[in-house]
Amino acid sequence: MGTEHTVRSFDEEIARLRGLIAEMGGLAELSAQEAVHALIHRNLELADAVVMRDKKLDALEAEVDRLAVRVIALRAPMADDLREVVAALKIAGMLERIGDYAKNIAKRVERIEVSKAFEPLTLLPAMAEVATDMVHDVMTAYAARDAALALDVIERDAKVDAFYNSIFRNLVSHMIENPSTISSAAQLLFITRNLERIGDHATNVAEMVHFAALGTYPVEE
Q: pTM score > 0.85 for this model?
């Protein structure tokens, strides 16, 4: 009876860990989407909401840390179970960073003054869509322990990098041709970099999903 209770308690703790990671993933994805929406539509209220939401992500990460340490200390998990706990611990940190990048984007919304749309700004939503889709899909892969989908997410990071390089070149050219926009363009450079980092961290999560599912990290070609 005691063994059954221990097993049931352990299963409940693992389920709790998975639930916390899923909640963090949903909030991180939402924050990234809303931060870019706030930027494009100059919605300062929405930007403020993204900034405030970051506190919730921080609190969830702390809860994951406490629970993961408790499980390792008291349950001494082995093999697949240990990978599950380690993956949750690392993924929580990565999702918290995605929230930080979204917050950074939101904080810059009020600092950008663009009287009319120009090409670098029009490219940002497409870049953001790829990056946020990566976050969405990697959380789907996490829930299903889908290593193949995790690999697909990793491959998409090259598209985010291509967007970053294109927007960077466009912004530099725009600043040279339109010196009066240098301040706003510089803010957009920071925003583009944050989106690129969101893609990087979605890739890192995908690598941990692959590890949790198969016990190996993806091999770089």
A: yes
pLDDT digits (tens, 9 = 90+) for 5-44: 456 787 899 999 999 999 999 999 999 999 999 998 889 9
Map tokens 């976050």 to a residue. Answer: 135
Structure tokens of 99?
């929230």
Q: Where are the domains of the chain?
A: 2-214
- Cα distances (angstroms) measured from residue 152 to each of 132, 133, 209: 14, 11, 12
Q: How far apart are CA 72 and CA 81, in angstroms?
A: 10
| Assigned CATH topology for domain 2-214 | Methane Monooxygenase Hydroxylase; Chain G, domain 1 (1.20.58)
Sign of the Cα pseudo-torsion (201, 207, 210, 215, in order): negative
Concatenated DSSP letters of 75-93? H---HHHHHHHHHHHHHHH
* Cα-based distances in Å from 122 to 40, 67, 178, 214: 9, 43, 17, 40
On whether the CB atoms of residues 54 and 99 are closer than 8 A, the answer is yes
pLDDT of residue 120: 63
**Contact between residue 77 and residue 84 where contact means Cβ atoms under 8 Å apart:** yes
Strands, DSSP E only, in the chain?
Answer: none
Kindly state the average pLDDT of the residues 201-206.
98
Do 20 and 92 meet the contact criterion of CB atoms below 8 Å apart?
A: yes
- Residue 122 in tokens: 């029009």
